[in-house]
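Good morning,

Attaching, inline, the backbone tokens for the sequence recovery test we're adding to the shared suite. The designed sequence is right after.
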């Protein structure tokens, strides 16, 4: 059972790769909407293993999960979307969540695509 984080001030930005992903961008938005309120999203070109990759960037507010629950859910999302890892920022702190623990990929700000203001 998930416990609610009642502060509802938490903010999440995901970089979700679209290559090898069985879901299109709209379907991915539905998947990530369980984390909170999707405020902003766009598709940009990121980089994975030295190659360009279309990336869905999603800004989510009102995240109602504790951080340990969020990591578990992002890991499940990586498996579901067939992504080796998903980069994220949670309340401004960057991380890369792999499909399987432990998370061995180091977050690098230069590769993260930040949210855009509306």
């Amino acid at each position: 059972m998930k416990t609610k984080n009642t502060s509802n001030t938490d903010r999440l930005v995901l970089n979700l790769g679209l290559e090898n992903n069985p879901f299109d961008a709209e379907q991915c938005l539905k998947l990530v909407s369980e984390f909170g309120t999707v405020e902003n999203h766009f598709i940009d070109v990121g980089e994975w293993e030295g190659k360009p990759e279309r990336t869905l960037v999603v800004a989510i507010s009102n995240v109602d999960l504790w951080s340990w629950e969020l990591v578990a859910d992002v890991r499940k999302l990586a498996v579901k979307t067939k992504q080796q890892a998903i980069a994220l920022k949670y309340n401004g702190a960057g991380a890369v969540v792999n499909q399987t623990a432990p998370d061995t990929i180091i977050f690098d700000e230069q590769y993260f695509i930040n949210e855009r203001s509306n």
